[in-house]
Amino acid sequence: MPLLVLDMFSINFQKERFMKLKYIIPSFMAIIAMLVGCSDKYEAAYLDDLRVSTSYIAVPVDGNYPAEFVVSAKGNWEIKNIPDWLTFTPMTGEAGDTKVTITAPATTDSKSAVVKIVCGTSVQDVNIVQTVKKSEVVLSVAQALQLIKEKPGSSARVKGIVCKIDEISPQYGNATYYLSDDGTYGADNWIEVYRGKWIDGANFATGEEFAVGDELVVEGSVVLYGDKTPEFSQGSSVVSINKSLIGIAEVEMLDIPEGKGVTEFPLEGGSAKITVSSKGNGFHLTIPAEAKAWLHIDDFGADYVTLKADANTGDPRTASLVFSTEAEGVTYSCEQELTQKGVPPAVTDVTVEEFLAKEVGTTQYRLTGVITELYASDKQGKSFYIADHTGKTLVYRAEGFIEAGAKVGDVVSVVGQRGAYKDSPQMVSGTFENVKYAVTAIPIADFRNLSDDTEKYYLISGTISQATESGTKNDVEKYGNFNLTDETGSVYVYGVLKGWGGAKGEFGSLGLTWGDKLTIIAYKTTYKGLVEAVGVYVSSEKAE
To answer: Which of the listed residues 315, 340, 365 is the one where a domain comes to its end?
Structure first.
């Protein structure tokens, strides 16, 4: 058994030292050339019957060390589109897990290829690159931070280890992440790469191009955003990548059915087995200090560690574990986050104004109001703006929103935390609670023909115009009494609340007048033969 060094919260296993790998990334044009050259005969399909352990492999430029990946198939498979500069061993296989080795001779020119693993009708693409690194002056993250202080806006190349990833977005082709010199995400040791691009400005295509622990060289303009955030401004790109020699192969919760891939402990606690892939000098595990009271090492082996979590009687909790290894004096690391369910927190009902005044944190708040618009920038379709009589705020990616079928005009409740993005307040980690009133958009003529019902709201839009019917009065200065007119007809609006939950008599504060366009949600009623809409403000547009 290998030599073991173990303290209370860390372990270190010694293995045979491997030669340091140099993974260098190809130019964008080379990748595009290979992609264009690939046959259209096989279409990529990501199915359970065919998987690969990685879809991106960097072959060392000196050709001294082979790269490898694992094919997991439920039938016979073969590798297609192999260029003459690459050798795969084996090139075919049967059902099960098969390790495939890739070798290539040393090169002085950058090369890339996309090969296809074919199993029946299923196909997996694997990107292979072998690139000669450019010789340029490269700054450390610490040097870049100093440069920002002295000459903000300077162009620079900076080498750092990815210590945190906000998002790698194939949808938009960019990524937001953080680099530090030692791979940790501390108080003042990082620089943010804001919506950066991939190699030579290419779009990110898979979302798996790099991971925490990988070493990147990034080029772009370094600035200080908002007087406190050091960052590469939008438009930077990756120059090269040195893949980490350590990674997480698998996480499995041992006490629950189908626990593979699950990273959340149940409320009552349990055990998680983390399998580590390390090509360095063993591996070392660090458990953060705040997690040591509830998360403990239970078992270990040459390539895994089992952790046991105590039962939780409080809030949900998180532990970001750091796995590290050394090779030729260089430390490589990766992170694995484990969470645990907590006792459902108390929820405080607040107005939008009260919510916006809260501090950023994990306290749970409930907002009830009208959906005024969807947040178009969220391609997941889970974000929207909610408003009441005190204001409006963004609800970012509320779980359950899509399933609820909610739409603009609906009166809804949502629970979440006070968050912010670049100082812009919003509700985050939200859960869509319910639709209090499902609202249908209809023409005014159809609204007039409805049955009276004070519990059913409808979305109507039109121009604020003078009411002339008997028993009406016109008032835009206080209560909001007038006719609302569209191309199908007019209806008398008897009072408009400034927003959901508001008091009567506040319509005048909206600053609207005759001829302005107005959208409200309203219920239909009739008083002495006069059809009326009693409404709540949603949106408006000033007349030209």
So the answer is: 340
